[in-house]
Every structure is written in C-alpha cells, then in structure tokens.
UniProtKB/TrEMBL annotation:
Belongs to the glucose-6-phosphate 1-epimerase family. One of its GO terms (biological process) is carbohydrate metabolic process. The keyword Isomerase applies. InterPro entries: Aldose_1/G6P_1-epimerase (IPR008183), G6P_1-epimerase (IPR025532), Gal_mutarotase_sf_dom (IPR011013), GH-type_carb-bd (IPR014718). This is Putative glucose-6-phosphate 1-epimerase. The keyword NAD does not apply. GO terms for cellular component: cytoplasm. It catalyses: alpha-D-glucose 6-phosphate = beta-D-glucose 6-phosphate. GO terms for molecular function: carbohydrate binding; glucose-6-phosphate 1-epimerase activity. SUPFAM superfamilies: Galactose mutarotase-like (SSF74650). Keywords: Isomerase.
Amino acid sequence: MDFNTLRDKFHQPGTLEITPGEGGLPRLTVISPVSTAEIYLHGAHVTQFTPRGEPPLMFMSRKSHYVDGKPIRGGVPLIFPWFGPNLADPKLPAHGFIRTRAWKLESVTRGEQGAVAVRLTLAPDAQAREIWPREFALAFTVTVGATLEMAMSVTNTGDRPFRFEEAMHTYLAVSDIRNISIDGLAGRTFIDKMDHAAHKTQPSGPFGITGETDRVYLNTPDTVVVTDPAGSSSRGPRMIAVSKQGSASTVVWNPWIAKAAAMADFGDDEWPGMLCIETANAADNALSLEPGQSHTMSATIALL
Ligand SMILES: O=P(O)(O)OC[C@H]1O[C@@H](O)[C@H](O)[C@@H](O)[C@@H]1O
C-alpha cells in the first residue's frame, strides 16, 4: 500500500497519526489518553513508548539507520526465525530477516480506557522464501495505554513442521547502565556469549552490569524488573517491569565500550544509556510448529 493510501485508510488525528518518519519511512504515532508510542512499518518496529509525564522508556540510537534493508537501532526490533547469527549459513542476516521487511498495517482499534491496539502482519515474499523456504504468517499487535503490550504470533501455514527462534529485542532507556539493577533471574541458567557460550547459574539476588554483557537466560518465564535510581522525570528512581507470556528465554545485552565503538549504527558514547531485556524463545528454548499450528509470545512493559 502506498503512503497516501495508507494515510487515507488509517490516519485518525488524536489516535493514530501517519507521517513520514526518519528516512521518509512510514511512521505511526499512536496516542492513548495516558501515553504515546511510535511504530515504523519497517520491521513493525516500535521505536518509542512514552507514558505521559515520564521520560521515554525506549532507547533509540542517534546513529540508527532508517533505510530499506537495514535494521533500526533501538526500540523493539522483532527477531525471527533465528536469533543471533545463522549457524548453518553465517552469510545470512543476523537475527533473521523480519526486522527489515515492510509490514502491513491491518487494523487500529480502541479498547478499554482508551488504549489503542495496532495490528500488523507479515507473510513471506520471494526474497524471504529464498532465505528461509517455509510458509508462515506473522501477526504483531501493539497495545498502547498505561503499559506497552506487544504480542507476536507465528503460524505455520505450510505443509511441514518448522523450528524457529524469536525475540522482541527491547532496548530500555536507562540513566546509567552502571547504576541499574536487574531482578527476576536469580538462580536461572544462562548461556554466556562472552565466555564461549558457557552455561552458568545466576547467583541469588538482583545484579548489575559491569562490562560487555550478552546472555541468554533459559527457562525464564517470570517478570524481570529493572531498577534505575535516576530514571524518572525528577531524576528519582524508576522501576520498569518486563512481564511476558509464551516466552521461555530472556536475553540481557549491553555492548559496553569496545563493541559500541565497533558498531556503525550506534554512538560510541551511547552504551551507558541502554539495557536490552529481550523477551525471547532462543537457543535451547527454540520452538517447533506443526502445519496449521500457531504460537503467541507477548511482553508487557510497565512502569511500577
Ligand atoms: O547488531 P545486532 O544484529 O542488532 O545485534 C545486537 C545484539 O543483539 C543481542 O540480542 C545479541 O545477543 C548480541 O549478540 C548482538 O550483538
């Protein structure tokens, strides 16, 4: 659908405003009585969620690309059907291909207390089938209200089973990564990508981040709470909760100094301002779907 047709069909001032975003890519501004959010059709990428009176909850890199074929850096990239590099073919794009496709806006509805739900879909085209020859249908619903709710469903529309990984690669904005603490993963096993994928156990109690961190926590269906001592509008504490359903993995990532400097689409000095807490099904928690089956993974991001 071209931009003008999209706008004619869905633009509703005060609810869903459709404008050219960065790089001219179509951007949805979703407005609820208590918050706003932004979503690009490119990747069905949530680039911001701002409860009224609060600083934005999402980190966005000022160096992000906004072009066809490249992912947006920050917000919530959607990852499917593999997480990280493709182990069978390292030439394929990292984190799969759906974060760089143009998704289709299907509907906009107002629900309880004025929350606005936006539904986007993606089906494979010839290029996607070349990369991953499977038949599937994806639907991503973003509900913007007092919280940000995101649900991605995957349906196997083909005639043979497939296995996949997936993630909502959420970049939370924090005042300084060196001061935050993370609660909800104590005692869980994680794959430490900084240490040859060694399996380790998270000690008891909340923990902080003190260097480059890249971990897949397995079998972690519980809510994770990030406490930021200076994250609120008055520079006081704020707590962000990431709760989920249909997700068995939680990825924790911060690139720290050297990796930040090595990434072209990330400012060298931006690493203290972000923490990825990703709602995922990855590694040992990869999923399989038989023909006709669906799976839904959802995450709710809330200020406590
Ligand atoms: O640069 P990308 O492809 O967006 O990936 C960023 C990071 O995403 C994280 O989820 C991975 O665990 C890291 O290994 C990776 O570096």
